[in-house]
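Suppose you are handed a protein chain with no further information: no name, no annotation, nothing but its sequence. What can you learn? This example shows the usual starting point.
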Amino acid sequence: MGASRETRPSVTSPEREIMLVKVGSAPTAKHPGYWDIVVKLPNVSKDEVVAALEQIEGQEIADVREV
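A reasonable first move is to predict its three-dimensional structure. Written in C-alpha cells, the prediction is:
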C-alpha cells in the first residue's frame, strides 16, 4: 500500500504555486451571507497574496494583513 498524500488548495502565481492553508473561518457579523477567512501563507508577500486571490472568481478581498 502506498502512502497517502495530503492535497491542499493552491493558486498558481506567475512565479510559483502558493499553498493556501486555511486557519479559520466564521460568518461575517456585519455582512450576512459573507464569511471571514484567515489563512497563513509563509514566505509570501502581501502583493503575491492579493494577486493570487484575485484569480479566484467571485472572491472579494476586504482586508489583507502581514503579521
